[in-house]
Design goal:
With 233 residues, the protein is α/β, with parallel strands linked by helices. The protein has 9 helices and 6 strands. It has a 6-stranded mixed β-sheet, with helices on both faces.
């Protein structure tokens, strides 16, 4: 199967102000976020990206606009990768939300969390995982098993996808950190996903390219014995 780069949108105006933007329209990137987005083309310059799948919200659209132009690949808007519907929490200051009884549930037992007037975190994980696996199959069929594609989404959504790929219960997803404009990498196979990177905010990521099967000498679904393919394994 293909390799998925999960890209969190660059820093938004809401991130900078400590506000829970949720699905509020018109929330774009702040100055820091624009600089982060401009650096994406360089970070992914060694990667032959075959597809871009993006949340419909503006901060994600703004993050990938320059990248899409540079790569020359079409952008597919995917509603299932949209931010969590936080309902009545939308637009409120995070410092105020920490005083709500539901905050402890979100932190300690997120699988039971349902936002008032919004959706459950369990629903978020279900829709997001369904979306990325569906697009992964599509891109693999269209471009081959060594294809690489990018999905640009939001922090909690990406954490939910990573928890599924890691085999973690959703109650453990708050242990995962996904910073603005970070990349996390998952390679799905016939039997299991492999999580290659989490919360990478550095430079060149060309090392994530999948090895050719003739070079690895094993099925793409097999874990490497010893845990590494490096010379020092």
């Amino acid at each position: 199967m293909a390799t998925l780069i999960l890209l969190r949108h660059a820093r938004s105006a809401a991130n900078g102000s400590g506000t829970l933007a949720g699905r509020t329209a018109g929330v774009g990137l702040d100055e820091t976020g624009r600089v982060q987005a401009e650096g994406l083309a360089g970070r992914l310059s060694g990667i032959p990206v075959s597809g871009l799948v993006v949340s419909p919200l503006q901060r994600c659209q703004d993050t990938v606009a320059g990248l899409a132009d540079g790569l020359g690949v079409p952008v597919v808007v995917e509603d299932r990768l949209a931010e969590v519907d936080y309902g009545q929490w939308t637009g409120r200051a995070v410092k105020d939300l920490t005083q709500e009884p539901l905050w402890k549930v979100v932190q300690q037992h997120p699988s039971a969390a349902v936002f008032p007037g919004g959706e459950a975190l369990a629903q978020v994980q279900a829709r997001a995982v369904e979306a990325v696996r569906e697009h992964d199959r599509r891109i693999s069929a269209e471009h081959g098993p060594h294809a690489v594609w990018v999905a640009c989404s939001h922090g909690d959504v990406i954490k939910a996808v990573l928890a599924d790929a890691l085999g973690l219960h959703l109650d453990g997803f708050q242990r995962i950190v996904v910073d603005p404009c970070s990349v996390s990498v998952v390679r799905y196979t016939e039997t299991r996903p492999f999580v290659l990177r989490v919360n990478d905010t550095g430079g060149d990521v060309s090392g994530l390219l999948p090895p050719k099967e003739e070079e690895s000498g094993s099925s793409s679904s097999d874990a490497v014995v010893g845990g590494s393919t490096g010379a020092g394994a």
